[in-house]
Amino acid sequence: THPAASAPSPSPISSAGGDSHAVTRTLHGDVLVIAIDNPPVNALGVEVRRGLLEAIEAADADAAVAAVVIVGVGRNFIAGADIREFGKPPQPPHLPAVCDRIEASTKPVVAAIHGAALGGGLEVALAAHYRIAAAGAKLGLPEVKLGLLPGAGGTQRTPRLIGARAALELMLSGRHASANEALTLGLVDRLSKTDDILIEGLAYARELVATRQGTRPTRAANGLADEAASRAAIEAARKETATRSRGLFSPLKIVEAVQAALERPFDEGLALERRLFLECLDSPQRAGLVHAFFAEREAAKVPEASAARPRPIASVGIVGGGTMGAGIAVAVLDAGLPVTLIERDEAALGRGRAHVERVYDGLVAKGRIDAKAKADAMARLAGSTSYEALANVDLVIEAVFEDMAVKKAVFTELDRVARPGAVLATNTSYLDIDEIAGATSRPADVIGLHFFSPANVMKLLEVVVPARVAADVVATAFEFAKRLSKVSVRAGVCDGFIGNRLLAVYRTAADYLLEDGASPYQIDEAMRAFGYPMGPYQVIDLAGGDIGWAARKRRAPTRDPRLRYVEIADRLCERGWFGQKTGRGFYLYPEGARTGVRDPEVEALIEDERKRRGVTPRSFTDEEIVERLMTAVVNEAANIVREGIALRPLDVDVTLMHGYGFPRYRGGPMKYADTLGLANVLASLRRFEKEDPLFWKPSPLIVELVDRGADFSSLNTTRG
Ligand code: 3HC
Ligand code: NAI
């Protein structure tokens, strides 16, 4: 739909010289409609800012104009500042000045909002004197997610309009509010009764003119009148931010700006906001978060998706109802698709179904969904112990045991029953998908869909592309990921694909440190300080040490005997110390506690291993720990890009941010390496190489890029 296009036949004003393409002005009687038309999302690039400023000045000067309506063309009002301009020299007119000029208009200005009114887009609306929103509108100040604060008066106008508490909550969470909620909060004055936001905006403006209601600057609103309540809200937000947003730069600045809104005159608050905004704009966190924003959109652009049309998917089969199968079932059911679950026997099927139900019960208990939504989802779930039930589904996802023989047997069955053209996917973590595809007569239909646990929560989907798969199957996988609201990344076939291959190197580097003198507790603390939610040994304790142990035993026969192998984790497992589920692992978990405590017996065990291996323990600083773990990951990731397992460095970034807890504000490991300077990364590798030439062998890609004076970002071109 094209709201502005469905307007009553427009009559362009003759005096509208300098009408820019991105902003058009149309006079409807005595109401001037200023329409923002800057696809895809009406971002406030320099053209739009200039056009808006000129239009509002023209309206003020034109005696034929009694009121103004600002509206967006296309699917949105305005999605905010043009994120592509960040990091480049800012070009006037600046958005705060444009907003001030709108607010200073002598004619009443109505913002007619549909779709997204986000960031600078909402700030434009707040600078207008009146606001009306369509039913599906999304209003928010998501700047914090980009390492910024609202920088066009948002920190000053929002609390004055809706109070400090609500304003802080919006700005610190960055979430989108619905039109209904926006009305309740007082962010908008009324809701549109129909879908035609332009007609409704015009009617609102005409009503204002007819009833002689004048301008109404938001800066004069009294949302901060209750000083004690405002102060309490600011202090509460400051406290919460210190713990919840640990390591982040912009949230505390948001609190500071709102405090200025309470304590200082409007213009002083605005000046402070501008200064803080520019500080944030300059921060590496802003650069990392903006990289993350674009990287997760670019990652879905793969050659196959632009070369081939996806196959339609209307029903899904899942084989294996364990941890992953049940989680995947929820993710698929949540997307509104019917699921047929296959298990080995009735008992296992019952467990799988119960697992799915438990997930929904949890969501109901938390108030995320209601009982009816749960019932609707469960009604879409069918189950069987016979493969024949999959005869008509469009996509099958296999999630049985991680065992090649079992997987091959399953795919032989799928080949027998599935209809021609059905997509056959495996959720394997490590196994060779080319070999799995070889168990069928239709390898062109076989692909990897690697979900992460819990599959209905984790955003990442690694689409693993074997050699013989058809392009339209790859396109189908990316389309399917979008339907499941997943962030998708294309990976090639190798042991562990992108994510688990890097996880293995990360853990190996940590184990080397462990044997060489660092404690698991120091390593975990250093990585948390770097921004991971958990350190590597906490993660092992959470997932269960037995899983990695089984994988190590499986790989033992093929392990490169020249590679250093640390046995500490094996010693723990031999004692049955598998982590949280056994009450002890690298940490002790007294009486089922979720957070572990230091275990002197583990420290003694590590000390014994060092002695046995003849290692004289050294001490490492937290910085050295981060340097070694990150250098190892970046180096392996460079090999992954070089081998074409990842299309671009950004695909690695997205994988680790969405599947492995890599701190988003650093933009992923490759962005982080660029921030450090690739020459510095190479220098670290050269230093570590002297200790262990095999593990620390610099990737030829890093050597080549440093030689050329280039970095990873130079390889981040779109492949779509
Ligand atoms: N600037 C530049 N490009 C933008 C953009 C923006 N603010 N918002 C979206 N885009 C681009 C995307 O990169 C994408 O480009 P592509 O097609 O080349 O990949 C295209 O617009 C469509 O975006 P989506 O794929 O995300 O489309 P959706 O329909 O799924 O979502 C949206 C639309 C909800 C508007 C979503 O794009 C979004 O959340 N955008 C960011 C909003 C935001 O963060 N605004 C605040 C900016 S900071 C600010 O305003 C500072 C101010 O206070 C001074
Ligand atoms: P699980 O052991 O919890 O579940 C496996 C299920 O498959 C069991 O319910 C079993 O009864 C069923 N099953 C086994 N053989 C079957 C057959 N022939 N027909 C039908 N059902 C059969 O295992 P989990 O953790 O769910 O893993 C499944 C797959 O997902 C594995 O390939 C694993 O590597 C992968 N994976 C696991 C992740 C995790 O975090 N657990 C993450 C990503 C992938």
From TrEMBL:
Keywords: Fatty acid metabolism, Isomerase, Lipid degradation, Lipid metabolism, Lyase, Multifunctional enzyme, NAD, Oxidoreductase, Peroxisome. The keyword DNA-binding does not apply. Gene3D superfamilies: 1.10.1040.50, 2-enoyl-CoA Hydratase, Chain A, domain 1, NAD(P)-binding Rossmann-like Domain. SUPFAM superfamilies: 6-phosphogluconate dehydrogenase C-terminal domain-like, ClpP/crotonase, NAD(P)-binding Rossmann-fold domains. One of its GO terms (molecular function) is enoyl-CoA hydratase activity. Residues 1-20 are annotated as: Disordered. It comes from the Bacteria. It catalyses: a (3S)-3-hydroxyacyl-CoA + NAD(+) = a 3-oxoacyl-CoA + NADH + H(+). Residues 316-491 form the 3-hydroxyacyl-CoA dehydrogenase NAD binding domain. Pathway: Lipid metabolism; fatty acid beta-oxidation. CDD domains: crotonase-like (cd06558). In the N-terminal section; belongs to the enoyl-CoA hydratase/isomerase family. Belongs to the enoyl-CoA hydratase/isomerase family. This is 3-hydroxyacyl-CoA dehydrogenase. It comes from Trinickia symbiotica.
